[in-house]
Write a structure and sequence with these properties.
This protein has 62 residues and is mostly helical. The chain has one domain. It is 73% helix and 0% strand. It is built from three helices and no strands.
Length: 62
Amino acid sequence: MVLKREVLDELTQGCKTPEDVTKLYAQMLQHMINRSLEAEMDAHLGYGRFQGSCRIFLRGLF
């Protein structure tokens, strides 16, 4: 995946120091890890985060 230059500029516009870059990297890494885990869980369960679980829960109540 290739990001457009405008997107990269927007992401890095507040980075003035190496610490800023490190913080941005940490946030991006955590976001990618979370997305990967959500995708893995969706694949494992066979439905998305808010797609089938409510129906299964409600089915047991009625």
